[in-house]
Amino acid sequence: MFALVAAGSVFFPGLFLLTRRSLRRLIGWSDGDAAVVATRLLSSLQAVMASSVGCVVVWSCSDIVEDRHWLTDAYIFFATPYFAYDVYAMYLCHHHRLRVKGHEEAEEATLAAVAGFLRRESLMVLHHVFLVAFCFPASVFWRQGKGDYFQALLFLAELSTPSVSLGKVLIQYNRQHTLLHRANGLVLLLTFFCCRVLLFPYLYYAYSRYASVSLSQAVLAAPWQCNLGAGLLWPLQLYWFSLICRRALGQFSRRPPGNATAGRHGSPLGNTNTANQSDGHRG
40 and 21 in contact (C-beta within 8 Å)? Predict the structure, then answer.
C-alpha cells in the first residue's frame, strides 16, 4: 500500500508541473496564470477520479457494512498525498496573485507571505490537515475493514469540485456574467447540496435503515470517530454552502453589464478582487 502513497506523491505534483509547463508553452501564459489554471484542472481531475471510485464501490456493495472493495483502501492511499500537494498549490496561487497586485512580499516565500496565506485560507488548510491527520487513519485502520459503502459515499462529495474549479476560472477571466457561469452556478448549488450538505445526514439515515433503528439510535451507535468527523466536517460544509448561496443570490440579482471587459491583458489573474474569494472545495 505504501507504493500507492509513493505513486500519489509523484503523480499529483508531477502532473501539476507538466500541465503548468504545457500551458506556458502551448498557450503562452505567464507562469502565474498557468499555475492557477493547472491547479484548477488537477483539482477537477482528482474529483473525477474520487467520484468514479465512489460510484464503483457504492454500486458493488449490497451489504453496506460488511461488503469490501479493493478500490476503497487503494484510492485512499493513492489520493492522500494530493491534500499535501494541494496546500502547496494553493500557496503558489496566492503567491502569484500577490505578484499581480504588486505586493513586494510575494517576490519570495517570506514568512509574511506564508502567514498571509494561512490567514486567508485557514479553513481550507485546516480542512486538509484534518483529512490527512484524522480521516486517513480513521478510514484505513480504525474502521477495521467495515463500511466501504460509507467511505465511497464520502468520495462522492467530490462531485461538486469541478463546478467550483470552473467557476473560479470563469471569474478569473472576468466571465462571471456569462450564461456558462450562471449554468455552472446552478450545477454547483445542486451538487454541493446533494453531495456535501445532505451527505452526513444520509450516512446516519442509511445506517439506521440497515440496523432497523431510529435515527437518534444510529447516531448513538456510531463509532466516536464517525461522530467526531461528521461533527467537524458537516458544519464546514454548511458554512461553505451558505457562501455559495449568498453569491448565487448576488449573481442572479445583478444585471449583466453591457460591456464586460476581460482581466488585465487577458490574464486569468487580472480580476484579483473577485477571483480570490474562497469557496468550499477539494476534499
Answer: no
Distance CA(251)–CA(205), nearest Å, equals 34
The rounded distance, in Å, linking the Cα atoms of 38 and 243 is 25
Q: Which helix (H) or strand (E) holds 53?
A: helix 31-60
Whole-structure pTM value: 0.82
Q: What pLDDT is attached to residue 238?
A: 95
The answer to whether the CB of 55 falls within 8 A of the CB of 157 is: no
| Distance of alpha carbon 148 from alpha carbon 75, whole angstroms | 12
Q: How far apart are CA 95 and CA 98, in angstroms?
A: 5
Highest mean predicted confidence (pLDDT) among 93-102, 139-148, 212-221: 212-221
H or E element at residue 79: helix 70-101
pLDDT band at 100 (very low <50, low <70, confident <90, very high): low
Helix axes 148-155, 31-60, angle to 10 degrees: 150
Q: Which residues contact residue 222 at a Cβ distance below 8 angstroms, ignoring those fewer than 6 apart?
A: 204, 207
**pLDDT mean across residues, the chain:** 84
Residues 90 and 121 sit within 8 Å (Cβ to Cβ): yes
Secondary structure of residue 268 in the 3-state scheme: coil
What is the C-alpha radius of gyration for the chain, rounded to an integer number of angstroms? Answer: 20
Dist CA 132 CA 82 (whole Å): 10
All three cell numbers of 161: 469540485
